[in-house]
Write a structure and sequence with these properties.
- The chain is mainly alpha-helical.
- It folds into 2 domains: 70 residues; 95 residues, no CATH class.
- The chain has a 3-stranded antiparallel β-sheet.
- The longest helix has 73 residues.
- It is rod-shaped, with a radius of gyration of 49 Å.
- It starts with a strand and ends with a helix.
């Protein structure tokens, strides 16, 4: 029997229509025929073009599907990477915060230990005289360790660690050159002869006016007095 290849309205090859195929109703045949263009009805010169066009459309559809799949995969991979990066950043931030907290607690504990070991002026037995080494040892024990060097720098410039140093022109007296010297009586009646009393007064003065001996030393460096 004669046969003809059918081409659908979108250009795809649909199949073969023959006279001895399974019996179909006239209505179904007419409906199919209405939506079908037989390849035989297309001029011979254009048949190859129609087939190539159909294959091209199929390839385009497959390529578009592949592109969509790749895009979806790339988006999912990017989402996973972003989630991992965010988690890594959070872990790093948490670690940094924990380390900062631990360092702060360590410094606070160290400061408490330093302060707990500080001796008061009255804890030193009175002597008839004191060497520079003895006076420095007293001062070191009467303040936080991180403040001693600043205090020492000021005393070195003001009196050279001579607790009996007197400025003949101004009347400043003692280790820290209090002006007038008798102001140190607020720290103890023995202010003229006891370096511990002078150190106590000097620390109170530096803390009250500059926040600390190191604050006083910074001011001294800028102004050559404090």
């Amino acid at each position: 029997m004669a046969s003809a290849t059918a081409v659908t309205t979108v250009g795809a090859i649909a199949g073969v229509a023959t006279g001895n195929t399974a019996q179909a109703s006239d209505d179904n045949f007419e409906a199919t025929a209405a939506d079908t263009t037989l390849l035989a009805d297309i001029p011979a010169g254009e048949q190859a073009q129609v087939q190539v066009s159909s294959l091209s459309e199929q390839a385009d559809a497959q390529a578009a599907a592949a592109d969509a799949s790749l895009k979806k995969s790339a988006e999912e991979a990017a989402r996973i990477r972003a989630a991992k990066d965010a988690e890594a950043k959070k872990e790093a931030a948490d670690k940094a915060a924990a380390e900062a907290k631990a360092e702060k607690e360590r410094k606070e504990a160290e400061e408490r230990a330093n302060r707990s070991s500080i001796r008061s002026a009255s804890s030193f037995a009175a002597q008839g005289s004191y060497s520079i080494a003895e006076v420095k040892a007293m001062a070191r024990q009467m303040m936080p360790s991180d403040q001693f060097s600043c205090f020492s720098n000021i005393v070195e410039h003001e009196s050279g660690w001579n607790y009996r140093a007197t400025n003949a022109s101004s009347g400043a007296y003692g280790l820290v050159q209090a002006l007038p010297g008798y102001k140190m009586a607020s720290a103890g009646a023995d202010w003229q002869t006891n370096p511990a009393t002078q150190i106590k007064w000097g620390l109170n003065y530096m803390d009250g006016r500059y926040g600390s001996p190191c604050g006083a030393w910074s001011f001294w460096q800028a102004n050559r007095w404090y």
